[in-house]
Amino acid sequence: MRIAFLAFPRVQLLDVVGPADVFAEAAKQLGNPRAYRVEVIGTEKGMIKGSSGLKLAIDETFETYKGRIDTLLVAGGPQIDEIALNPALQQWLRAQAMKVRRIGSVCSGAFLLAAAGLLDGRRVTTHWNSSARLAKEHPQTEVDADSIFIKDGNLYTSAGVTAGMDLALALVEEDHGRELALKVAREMVMFCKRPGGQSQFSAQLAAQTAERSVIRAVQDYVLQHLKADLSVPALATRAGMSERNFARTFKAEAGSTPAEFVELARIDAARRLIEDSDVSLKRLADTVGYANTDGFRRAFTRRLGVGPSDYRKRFS
C-alpha cells in the first residue's frame, strides 16, 4: 500500500515521520518491506526545512506526482494557512480525494483539507488549540475538539502531533488486524494504543492549565478524592467562593465546567484501572466515585466512544 504524506516548508516533522515510522514498523512486523511504501509529496521540490529547522527530502511535488496513492495524509505546521490558499493544491487534493482509498490529516493539516472543501458536512478533529478556529472558519464542518482521531467514511483526521501515530496505528489495525497494531505499539514503546474517542487531555494534564492557585488546588483535590462529594456546592465551599463565582472562575481558568473536569478525572482513572487490572465493573464504578454501574457506563462511553467492557477487551 502506498502511503503518501503531503508536506511543505515549516511542516511539523513529527506529523510526517511519526506515522511514517508506524507504517514502516508494521511492514517489518509483517516480514514484508513492501507492505507499506511511504512517500513524501511536497509543495516544492528538493529539500524542505521543517518547523524545527531539520530538513526533509521530497520524493515528488504534487504537480509532478504520477503514482497511485492508497492513503493520503496531509501534515500540519505553522504555515498551513498560507499553504491552504494555493488553488492548484486545493484542486489536486479534490482530485485525489476521488481516487484514493483513504484521505486524512494530522494536526492542523485539517485546515488544508477544509480549504479544499473536503471537510464540508463531515465530523473531524484537529489540535485542541486550533479546533475553535477551524469551527469558526468552516462552520459547515462538525469539529470535535477532544478526540484523538476521527473516522468519517474514508476521511480520517487526527489531533495534534503525536496523535498522528495513533491514527497510523488505527489504519494498520484496519488493514491487518488488532494483533499487528498492538505489536507495533509495543515495539515503538507507545504508552497505549488509544481509541479515537479518547480525550486529547488526561485529567492530570488538564489540571495544569488553570492559572489561579485556588482552582488548581480544587483540581488536585478532585484527582486525589474521586469518591468524595465533588458537586459544585461542595467544591465551591472548598474554594471559599460562592457557587456562581466558582463555576464561572473554574470555566474561565480550566476551560471546562467543574462537572466536566470531575467526569474527566473519574473516567481517566477508570481507564487506567481497566488497562492495568481485572477489577469488576461494579467495583470499578465505586472506586472512581459512581453510585451505580449504569451511570458509570454512560459516562465512560460518552467520554471514550466505547463502553468499559469493549475497552477492556481491546486495551487491557
- Percent strand equals 5-15%
Order of helices and strands: EHEEEEEHHEHEHEEEHHHHHHHHHH
Helix tally equals: 15
CATH superfamily of the largest domain: Class I glutamine amidotransferase (GATase) domain
Please state the structural category.
Answer: alpha/beta
Using the CA coordinates, give the radius of gyration.
21 Å
- Rounded to the nearest angstrom, the distance between the terminal CA atoms is 30 Å
- The first-level CATH class of the largest domain is given as Alpha Beta
Helix content: 40-55%
What CATH architecture label of the largest domain applies? 3-Layer(aba) Sandwich
Q: What is the total number of structural domains?
A: 2
Q: Could you say what the CATH topology of the largest domain is called?
A: Rossmann fold
Topology, please?
Elements: E1 2-7, H1 13-30, E2 37-42, E3 47-49, E4 55-57, E5 60-61, E6 71-74, H2 80-84, H3 87-97, E7 102-105, H4 110-115, E8 123-124, H5 131-137, E9 142-143, E10 149-152, E11 155-158, H6 163-176, H7 178-187, H8 203-206, H9 213-224, H10 232-239, H11 243-254, H12 258-276, H13 281-287, H14 293-304, H15 308-315
Explained architecture:
There is one protein chain. By secondary structure, this protein is α/β, with parallel strands linked by helices. The protein has 2 domains: 2-187, 3-Layer(aba) Sandwich (Rossmann fold), CATH 3.40.50; 203-315, Orthogonal Bundle (Arc Repressor Mutant, subunit A), CATH 1.10.10. It has helices at 13-30, 80-84, 87-97, 110-115, 131-137, 163-176, 178-187, 203-206, 213-224, 232-239, 243-254, 258-276, 281-287, 293-304, 308-315, and strands at residues 2-7, 37-42, 47-49, 55-57, 60-61, 71-74, 102-105, 123-124, 142-143, 149-152, 155-158. A hairpin with a 2-residue loop joins β10 (149-152) and β11 (155-158). The chain starts with a strand and ends with a helix.
